[in-house]
Design brief:
A hairpin with a 5-residue loop joins strand 6 and strand 7. By secondary structure, the protein is of the alpha/beta class. It has three domains: about 180 residues, FAD/NAD(P)-binding domain (3-Layer(bba) Sandwich), CATH 3.50.50.60; about 110 residues, no CATH class; about 130 residues, no CATH class. The relative contact order is 0.20. The model has no long low-confidence stretch (mean pLDDT about 95). Strands 7-6-15-16-17-14-18 form a seven-stranded mixed sheet. It contains 14 helices and 20 strands. This is Phytoene desaturase. InterPro entries: Amino_oxidase, Carotenoid/retinoid_OxRdtase, FAD/NAD-bd_sf.
């Protein structure tokens, strides 16, 4: 492993108090390093903020970032780095089912973690041949995970040479370098099941038809290892990480914008904010790579292909939303055509979308007898297609269309008391290039050793979605730990 600094630093400044920055802070603090975190927003959490709104019925707590939490051992490792137990800081609830898949023909399938129950559900849903296919599929993706996770995701990569190992051939034999769509189709004849076990590629910013087969590990994370939800909402995770970090000496400053990072004569760096200048032996930058490189006075070497964006409605609803599942995936009649629309910069004509009702797990997020509903509709990024969508103009029209899709999906006429509606233009205003919160797409040339390298200068390391290993809560937590390891080395296992 190449470190970003020749010697173990005494003081590290981390720019950004999102999940990547907080992960890096805990791992560095656990290694005995003095850590200062500087965040321009007045809150912690980065892309996992919390919005509190009061309606006629009372107070609602709305998450406006990620809603799916998997790979709990990775989160536990952040707390363990400073000698703490995750369960002393965050109360987690295991979701059962992890998701409910709802299809355009009116059928539905609960996606559960228990393999025997899932096999039985598939048999009832589509017959014994498909159940046998599920058995083979579940074993296959777990074997793929066992190779890909330790050697290609949870590991600092230093170019192609670092991947030239025997496990590379094993990934190839398991179909990891083919396409995800055909890989999943080799186990299932039923088109509904193919969608239910491949939609997770969207978390990596690519369609199942284009995603590498190795991204089946995301399905292993969701359905093999389970989905959880923290009491108090997803923002409870960065809030707890912040409290643990501060308890172990990490300084976290909010509402302070970093303007530039410059090398210091004699070694180290000066981190200039709008309020002061900090001296650091090393720096971890967690913004999107082009934003981080701009702080160094540099620009990216190549154009980045962005993931699709999304429109997010987070709403406080008077009364109870129909349905019992926490997470629901609604599939339209179209599938491949949906991804063509996104790639060409068009709105989805027949959308598939995610609905979460977190009050099914934590009723305290809403007043008594009310619900919180989160609806995520994929949308093109602002740099896809020839004519970007004018979101400011169509915002009210799209909101009406979104609500019509929800009504058609069985949610009826929602009595919305409070809401946050976030479009790609809003994501861009929050500083996310091309208006997408999903960073660079995980195409072949933007994955693994071809993704933005984490070491960008001596003693300057990147973390977050735009660098390795990539997009998603587990990946971002890993990126923070890997950034720390670049500076202080890996902890003994």
């Amino acid at each position: 492993m190449n470190r970003g600094s020749a010697a173990t630093p005494d003081h590290v400044v981390i720019v950004g108090a999102g999940l990547a920055g907080l992960s890096a802070a805990l791992h560095l603090a656990g290694a005995g390093v003095q850590v200062s975190v500087v965040e321009q927003a007045p809150w912690v959490g980065g892309r996992a903020p919390l919005t509190e709104r009061t309606g006629r019925s009372g107070a609602y707590r709305l998450d406006t970032g990620p809603t799916v939490l998997t790979e709990i051992p990775l989160l536990a490792g952040c707390f363990a780095a400073v000698g703490e137990r995750l369960e002393d800081w965050v109360e987690l609830h295991r979701l059962d089912p992890a998701y409910q898949a709802r299809f355009a023909d009116g059928s539905a399938l609960d996606l559960v973690t228990d393999r025997a129950r899932m096999r039985s559900a598939v048999e009832t849903f589509a017959g014994p041949a498909e159940a046998a296919g599920y058995d083979r599929f579940a074993g296959h993706v777990e074997r793929l995970y066992e190779v890909v996770m330790p050697h290609f995701i949870d590991h600092n990569i230093d170019g192609l040479v670092s991947l030239l190992q025997p496990d590379l051939a094993r990934v190839a034999r398991l179909g990891g370098f083919g396409r995800l769509g055909p890989l999943v189709a080799s186990f299932f004849q039923d088109e509904r099941l193919r969608r239910a076990f491949s939609f997770q590629a969207l978390y990596a910013g690519v369609s199942p038809a284009r995603a590498l087969g190795l991204f089946a590990v995301i399905t292993a994370m969701d359905l093999g290892h389970g989905v959880s939800y923290p009491a108090g909402g997803m923002h409870a995770v960065p809030a707890a990480m912040t409290a643990a970090a501060r308890a172990h000496g990490v300084s976290i400053s909010l509402g302070e914008r970093v303007e530039r990072v410059a090398p210091r004569h004699g070694g180290g760096h000066r981190v200039h904010t709008d309020a002061r200048a900090l001296t650091a032996d090393a720096v971890v930058l967690t913004a999107e790579p082009e934003c981080s490189l701009a702080l160094l006075g540099r620009t990216p070497r190549k154009r980045v292909v962005r993931s699709p964006s999304c429109v997010l409605l987070a709403a406080g609803v008077r009364g109870r939303v129909p349905g019992a599942a926490h997470h629901r995936i609604h599939f339209g009649h179209a599938w491949d055509e949906v991804f063509d629309d996104l790639a060409d910069g068009r709105l989805m004509r027949d959308p598939s979308f995610l609905v979460s009702v977190p009050t099914r797990t934590d009723p305290s997020l809403a007043p008594a007898g009310c619900d919180v509903l989160y609806a995520l509709f994929p949308a093109p990024s602002l740099d896809s297609g020839r004519s970007p969508v004018d979101w400011d103009r169509i915002r009210p029209l799209y909101r009406d269309q979104l609500l019509r899709h929800l009504a058609t999906a069985g949610y009826g006429d929602l009595d919305i008391e409070v809401e946050e509606l976030i479009t790609p233009h809003d994501w861009k205003r929050r500083g996310l290039p091309a208006g997408t919160p999903f960073s660079a797409a995980h195409t072949f040339t933007q994955s693994g050793p071809f993704r933005q390298p984490s070491v960008v200068a001596p003693g300057v390391v990147l973390a977050g979605s735009g660098t390795t290993p990539g997009v998603g809560v587990p990946m971002v937590l890993i990126s923070g730990r890997l950034a720390a390891e670049r500076l202080v080395g890996a902890s003994p296992s």
